TrEMBL record:
<dbReference type="InterPro" id="IPR006838">
    <property type="entry name" value="ADTRP_AIG1"/>
</dbReference>
<feature type="transmembrane region" description="Helical">
    <location>
        <begin position="142"/>
        <end position="166"/>
    </location>
</feature>
<dbReference type="GO" id="GO:0012505">
    <property type="term" value="C:endomembrane system"/>
</dbReference>
<protein>
    <submittedName>
        <fullName>Androgen dependent TFPI regulating protein</fullName>
    </submittedName>
</protein>
<feature type="transmembrane region" description="Helical">
    <location>
        <begin position="67"/>
        <end position="85"/>
    </location>
</feature>
<keyword id="KW-0812">Transmembrane</keyword>
<feature type="transmembrane region" description="Helical">
    <location>
        <begin position="216"/>
        <end position="233"/>
    </location>
</feature>
<feature type="transmembrane region" description="Helical">
    <location>
        <begin position="106"/>
        <end position="130"/>
    </location>
</feature>
<dbReference type="Pfam" id="PF04750">
    <property type="entry name" value="Far-17a_AIG1"/>
</dbReference>
<feature type="transmembrane region" description="Helical">
    <location>
        <begin position="27"/>
        <end position="47"/>
    </location>
</feature>
<feature type="transmembrane region" description="Helical">
    <location>
        <begin position="178"/>
        <end position="196"/>
    </location>
</feature>
<keyword id="KW-0472">Membrane</keyword>
<keyword id="KW-1133">Transmembrane helix</keyword>
<comment type="similarity">
    <text>Belongs to the AIG1 family.</text>
</comment>
<dbReference type="GO" id="GO:0016020">
    <property type="term" value="C:membrane"/>
</dbReference>
């Protein structure tokens, strides 16, 4: 009976990063797939709409790659693709053979995938609710259906939070994590400023409303916000999985003593 209970109960096996259900079925390996496919569908639809002549002016001077929303839609499938690859390889290889991919998955999610998706969600909806013309002018409703807007700017946060809740992540040192996020943040801000210097047009309408001082303040507050999101993600991961890691260490210590 005890063995049957152990086989049937739901439990985490961290060494394989899998969740096991009854009858020993590994289903966590399939979790990234719906997320990957969902984001890919949204991304494909978004790209197909760029052929619409009504938005040719919006996509001028940098195309869709100038928008953080689009970059995030590219980032998320990349992350879930890496996560899926890791799960598959862990089923056919030894753990040590996929350590690099596991470390890359940790780094990609903790420093970019989660902070950027949460940042896009928060900043978009804050500006949208304050004055949508600053971030997503009303005429875009004719081009992009409401469901696509929510796919790009709403669903991204629940999907990322689900990843935090369903799977533990090892955060890098604060120096490494904040360095990666800072480089990415300044690279994007630099691109926004470069596009303006070359074309005289801003990526987002809100920038045209700001003075140089206001723009500096906006960028500074945005940077503080995304750093805060990173630190919050680290806290959430520790809150959810501290006991899990503690049990791992205790079990390993007990095995060493028994040996």
């Amino acid at each position: 009976p005890a063995e049957g209970f152990q086989r049937d109960r739901l439990y985490w096996r961290h060494s394989g990063s899998l969740v096991r259900a009854s009858h020993g079925e590994d289903f966590y390996v399939h979790i990234p797939l719906p997320c990957f496919e969902l984001v890919y569908v949204f991304l494909s639809y978004y790209i197909s709409q760029t052929r619409n002549p009504q938005i040719s002016t919006i996509l001028a001077n940098g195309g869709q790659w100038k928008y953080l929303t689009f970059l995030n839609l590219v980032l998320q499938p990349i992350f879930y693709g890496v996560a899926f690859l890791e799960d598959v390889l862990k089923r056919i290889k030894e753990k040590k053979d996929v350590k690099f991919i596991t470390a890359f998955r940790y780094l990609l999610f903790t420093t970019l995938a989660f902070p950027v998706s949460a940042f896009v969600f928060l900043l978009f909806w804050i500006l949208f609710l304050y004055n949508r013309e600053l971030i997503y002018p009303k005429f875009l409703d004719v081009i992009f259906p409401a469901w696509l807007n929510h796919a790009m700017h709403t669903s991204i946060l629940p999907i990322s939070l689900a990843e935090v809740i369903l799977r533990p992540h090892r955060y890098p040192s604060k120096k490494t994590g904040l360095t990666v996020l800072t480089v990415a943040s300044f690279a994007y801000m630099g691109r926004v400023l470069w596009i303006y210097s070359e074309t005289g047009t801003w990526v987002y309408p809100v920038f045209a409303k700001l003075s140089p001082v206001g723009l500096a303040a906006f960028f500074s507050l945005s940077y503080i916000l995304i750093i805060g999101i990173y630190l919050l993600g680290e806290k959430l991961n520790h809150w959810k999985w501290a006991a899990h890691y503690g049990n791992m260490v205790r079990d390993k210590f007990c095995r060493l003593r028994e040996a």
